[in-house]
Amino acid sequence: MTQVPEQALYTAAQVRELDRLAIEEAGIGGYPLMCRAGEAAFQRLRFFWPGGSGRLLVLTGPGNNGGDGYVIARLALEAGLMVSLIPAGDPEKLKGDAARARSDWLAAGGEEFRFEGRLPEDTGLIVDALLGTGLTRAPEGLIAELIELANSHPAPVFAVDCPTGLDADGGQILGTAMQAAHTSTFVGRKQGLYTGQARAVTGRIHFERLAVPDSVYQGTTPSAFLIERREVAEMLPPRQSTAHKGQHGHVVVMGGDHGMGGAALLAAESALRGGAGRVSLLTRPGHVSAALSRAPSLLVRGIRRPGQARPLLADADVIVLGPGLGQSRWGRGLWRLALESGRALVLDADALNLSAGQTDPLPPGSVITPHPGEAARLMGCSIPELERNRFDSATALAGRWRATVILKGAGSLVAAPDWPLRVCDAGNAGMAVAGMGDVLAGLVGALRAQGLEAREAATAAVWLHAAAGDLAARELGPRGLQPMDLFAPIMRLANPPEARR
Q1: Which part of the chain has CATH 3.40.50.10260?
Q2: Statement: the pTM of the whole predicted model exceeds 0.85
Q3: What quaternary arrangement does the UniProt entry report (predicted)?
Q4: Does the annotation flag 470 for ligand binding?
Q5: Residue 169 marked in a binding site
Q6: Annotated binding-site residue? 262
């Protein structure tokens, strides 16, 4: 039987159904599954906190997430750790498996401490077992107070299944959320843990399958998949020993209005580093000398009037439009030429802003690369509305434009019509600087020109870009990271070791 993909992502409702199937059809049973979750989390916790210095503080809620917390607390007590447990609400009202977990905790000699306005000062680690994935609105009352106190406490937080206060589907913080250093999530990866505001509160995510058999997963189609290095490697075409530049495509980058020449140059150089056979840069005449000084292998043309670009597009395999384009008459003219060319497009920055409100379809095989502000303009909504559920927004954009969409941000998404979403869990805060998006756009163009389908080029480029940012940040540090720092790591990641011998 086919192994369930370890990179599969699910909605919270889908995981609840997987839980039900594991309990009822696979015969695991509700309480044994809860015990598996608690034991897996405890083993992960012990690896992260091997010394056990200080007291383990477990915060439990009114449902099964709280039951997981009781199991963790019992295992910790049996392992000889100092454990305090504070329930949020009346623990006598717990039902089913959670009530049984509480009973076993008390039978093992555990105690429940009443919350008295503060958390114990000798706490070395806080376990968040308050609400898990069932939250649909902002935490209130005691739970909200416990979140704020835990976040201000010097002890790190270990979240059980999902940090309390985080929407497990949309990836947004609902008012306030527990800021975890680690999160153990069970049975299926929850999609909302990997994008948007979630990246600020989940810490390192650990997937615990809990020995659920393959058969449980067979009838449930994942909502999305994490991008894997292996998947990207399989997408990249091998280089033949007899290859010539004409086989690796011609990318034309158009952009770089007055004062913005660097953006177009970054996109063009990224296309070179991404393996395109030829890269032409059509930009303002004043930027030509600087571009050739930086990258003499570029074919650079100074364009005073948009019409001068028309004959130069006939030989393009893909056009990258937007970096430094601006919205003046010059930029608008180039934008119209690109749309009329019929060539596959990679639209970024002002090319997206100019496209907002348009109804004409993009040429087949095009890719758009909006950040949330640009995506909101394309959707005709506010940024908060768009970010409420990035998965739904990316899917809607792909359907509206009949194109592949890269919705940028923490945990970038790749969406295409009739294709499962991809999510990138690489990348870091050092990449939040001007020019990083230009590098991504050029890289997408390079991969499209080398023959990858739009969705494959977008997926591979997003991962290569983010993973290269992580390599650069590890070497240089995230603060002060520059777009050019990604070029060498991109080449290392895009070339198998045997090609570098």
Answers
A1: 8-225
A2: yes
A3: Homotetramer.
A4: no
A5: no
A6: no
68 is in an annotated binding site: yes
Q: Where are the beta strands (DSSP E) in 40-99?
A: 55-60, 83-87
Give 10-residue mean pLDDT values along the chain (501 residues): 74 96 96 98 93 91 96 97 95 96 98 94 96 88 96 97 96 95 97 96 96 94 95 90 86 97 98 97 97 96 96 96 97 96 96 89 95 95 94 96 96 96 97 97 98 98 98 97 98 80 56
Annotated binding-site residue? 190: no
Is 410 labelled as part of a ligand binding site? yes
Backbone angles phi, psi at 102, to 5 degrees: -65, -45
What DSSP state is assigned to residue 25? I
Three-state DSSP class for residue 108: coil
Whether 445 contacts 348, CB under 8 Å: no
Question: How far is Cα 270 from Cα 442, in angstroms, rounded to an integer?
Answer: 5
161 assigned binding-site residue: yes
Tell me which CATH homologous superfamily contains domain 248-354+361-495: Ribokinase (3.40.1190.20)
The domain 8-225 having CATH identifier 3.40.50.10260: the answer here is: yes
Indicate the angle between helix axes 436-449 and 454-476, nearest 10 degrees: 140
Instruction: Pinpoint the residues of the chain covered by CATH 3.40.1190.20.
Output: 248-354+361-495
H-run or E-run covering 291: helix 288-294
176 assigned binding-site residue: no
Reading the block at residue 228, the tokens are 């894997």
Q: Is 357 annotated as a binding residue?
A: no
Say if residue 151 carries a ligand binding annotation.
no
Report yes or no: 371 and 346 within 8 Å, Cβ to Cβ: no
Residues β-bridged to residue 250: 278
Rounded Cα distance between 347 and 57, Å, is 50
Residue 75 counted as an annotated binding residue = no
